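User: Is it possible to get a 3D structure for a protein together with its bound compound? The compound here is FE2/S2 (inorganic) cluster. I've pasted both below.
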Amino acid sequence: MEHEHRRWNLSEDARLRSQVRHSRGCEPQSTRTPMHSTQLTINGRRETVNADIRTTLLDALRENLNLTGTKKGCDQGQCGACTVIVNGRRINSCLSLVASHEGDDVVTVEGLADGEALSPLQRAFVTHDAFQCGYCTPGQLCSATALLKEIEAGEPSVVSNGEIILSEEEIRERMSGNLCRCGAYNNIVDAIVEAAAQGGEAAR
Ligand code: FES
Ligand code: FES
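Assistant: Yes, that's possible. Here is the predicted structure of the complex:
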């Protein structure tokens, strides 16, 4: 009997503590959504993203900023559909929290064209039929745009052997993080070769 009485007191104590916490506005943290405000530049525009601190850059682009060109494939860093360019480097936006991009400069597929004028790489993708369903194409384009800049900067890959030549092997290695379920790989390589032949403008 005494034991039951003690048990009641303990549960009542917990209930009262909860009430006090609630009335003071200090509920346990697990019941709150931790929000964060991040300022960054996206395709040349200053943007502020107010989002749950656990939001990925990919979800912030698609859900908060309505930039749905960047695609979600695997959502775990394995397909490259979500590739965007951050401060000149390509990254998988599904693996990166938007809160970690304070002050960063982000380019998505929507930022590759100059108004109505497609970039040389985009034109080459059209010319060479480098897509079928097109789901992977935004990621392929962002990845290839950054790839051409890496080549210009003389950055080697694992298959580079001394002088960096934009060979088919080099392109395939550097684009290996971007999967295409339609198998448009040969045409993608051809498009990149053509864009590269146009020099620095291609990597705009
Ligand atoms: S969605 Fe990011 S790598 Fe697949
Ligand atoms: S064009 Fe369909 S997945 Fe690449």
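The helical segments are 2-23, 57-64, 120-127, 137-152, 168-174, 185-197. The CA atoms of residues 29 and 197 lie 56 Å apart.
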